[in-house]
Structure formats: structure tokens, C-alpha cells
Amino acid sequence: MLDLILVYRLMRALAERVRLLLVGDPFQLPPIGPGLVFHVLAESNAVPQQELSQVHRQAAGSSIPTLAQEIRKGRVPVFDHFAGPAPGVAFIEAASRHLTRTVVDVRQALADHGEVQILAVTKRGEAGVETLNAAIHKLVAADRPGVPGWGFAETEPVIHLLNDYDRDLFNGSLGRIRLIVSARSEAGTLSDAVECDFDGVVHRFGEDSMDRLELAHAITVHKAQGSQFQRVIIPVVWSRLLDRTLIYTALTRCRSGGIRRGPRGAGQSHCGSAPLRTAAGGIPDPGEWRSTPIGPTSSSKGRPGEQ
Fold first, then answer.
1. Residue from 286, 303, 241, 236 nearest 91 by CA
2. Which residues contact 279 (CB under 8 A, 6 or more apart)?
């Protein structure tokens, strides 16, 4: 996520004769900060560029790259019917009031067939990260050792929320709780601690540092950018954050299978709409921001976006 402030600081730090190579996908989510530097440069004839067209994340016969291309072009693709753990991308229509329950059901149906990650549009609200994590935690943690008051149990996935250079952990690092232990503080009192595996390295978090962790059965699409998973579930809800860059980014996180759930109108409307913060070609256009649908009607009000 290359915003204007970051590029400004980077350019000031570089020597005059240094060559700068930018690698990225202008069809993914724009930066949270101001400016669309990479998106604009990708459209500029003044900047030498090369497009890499070979897909390595998915297998040669996967339908994901084809569907992703359709979304990039603003077309509504045709999705398969859900067939369990079979490869491909499926759409399951579900009313908003039933979305959390049905996402959890699909997640449970796929749980024994490899890695499954839920990628939500927002952090709060119906089918948001907090709601989904609470529902899944209640389901899977009943018979596992846990930390009272913190909502963590053994084997649950977690996400690290801060940059910690001493631990080599960063905002968005994904891990898994391997053990709940009792640790003695400097004052001699016993308290709970969690041991988490992050990429093969075990880190211990006591009660004074557990607030750096959150459950990660579900994470936002923004947090998932740069990651990949075997399968993803994407609950699609009406939101002013939802546009085709978000759907495209979420879909291309998966290696073998993706499942989109939600009201059919929400997915169709935003696959075909111009990005909320860029025009169809990637160049900023305030007129496009105002004309892009944000819900069932033009007067719908979305919840303020949480990243």
C-alpha cells in the first residue's frame, strides 16, 4: 500500500542516481493513506513498465485467474454452485440476517479439508471480523484450554497487531496458539500466557502483551493483502468499503478455492462498479467516487470503514 506520504519520504532518502523498481498490482486495494501513486504510474506512458502475465499462485487449470480477469474488467463473472471442498469459486446466496450463521457452517464443512481463511469486508457489524471470530470461537473452544477473559483457546489462529522488531513480528503477522501455560510474574504471582507459533518460531505472550493479539478465524481483506491461503470464504455485505478492488483482492488470495456468500445484488453490483477511490482505469476521478453504488439504494448509509 504505497501512499503519497511514504513515497515522499522514500524519495527524499534515496540518492540521486538510485534506480527505483516498483512491483505491484494496480487492480488491488488502493492505499489507506492519501494518494494513488502506484495506480497513476501504472497508467503513465512516461514510466518504463513490464506486465507479468504468468500466474503462479493457482494451478494451471484453476478458474480463479479467469474470474479475476473478469472482475478487473468490471464484468460480473459466472460462479459455480457450492460443492464442498472441490476446487473453483462458488457463490452461495444468503440473506444478510443469516450470513454469519451460514459462513460458520461453510467454514465447518471445509475445516477438515485443509486451510480455510475468512476474509471479511469490515471489522465490525453483521458478518464482520469481530462477529465471525466470536461465533467460531464459541463453537471450537468449548473443550479446549483457554485464557479466561481474553477469548483465546489452544489451536486457534491469531493475528499480531503491532510492529515488534525485537520479535520480528509485524502488524498482520499470522500465527496459531499452540499452548496455554501459567507464567510467574516478577512479583511472584501466577498468570496465564499463550505460546504462539509464527512461521515456525514460538513466541510467548503474557497478560501484559496479549492485547497485541486478536483471533484470526476471520480477518479483513485489507489485513490479508500480501498473503495467500488454500481456500477463502468471502462474506459479501452492503458496505461503502465494497468495490471491485476489494472483491478482486480477496479472491486472488486463494490458491485452490473461494466461496462468496451474501445477497446476490451486493456481489453483482460491486463486481461491475468502478473502484471507489479510483476510476475504472486507475486514475483518480472524483466523479466516479460519487457515482459508484454503495448499497441497495443511492441513499443507503454504510458504517464508517474500519481497516
1. 236
2. 285, 288
Exposed / middle / buried, residue 29 (Cβ in 10 Å: 0-12, 13-18, 19+):
buried
CA distance 292 to 225: 23
Q: How far apart are CA 165 and CA 131, in angstroms?
A: 30
- Mind listing the pLDDT tens digit of every residue in the chain (307 residues)? 788 999 999 999 999 899 999 998 988 888 888 888 898 898 888 989 998 887 777 766 677 888 888 888 888 887 877 877 777 788 888 888 888 998 999 998 888 888 899 999 989 988 899 999 999 999 988 888 888 888 999 999 999 999 999 999 999 999 999 999 887 666 677 788 999 999 999 999 988 899 999 999 999 999 998 888 989 999 988 777 778 888 889 988 988 767 665 555 555 555 655 555 543 333 344 333 333 333 333 333 333 334 4
Instruction: Please tell me the distance from the alpha carbon of residue 119 to that of residue 132, in angstroms, as a whole number.
Output: 10
Contact (Cβ atoms closer than 8 angstroms) between residue 240 and residue 276: yes
What residue spans of 74-210 are helical by DSSP H?
99-110, 129-140
Q: Identify the H or E element spanning 258.
A: strand 254-262
- 130 HSE (CA, 13 A, CB side): 7
Count CB atoms within 10 A of the CB of residue 45.
Answer: 6
Residue 277 in contact with residue 289, Cβ under 8 Å? yes
pTM value is 0.78
Question: What's the grid cell of residue 281?
Answer: 482505469
Q: Which residue in this structure is represented by grid cell 523498481?
A: 21
The string over 88-108, giving b where at least 16 C-beta atoms fall within 10 Å of a residue's C-beta and e elsewhere, is: bbbbbebeeeebbebbbebbe
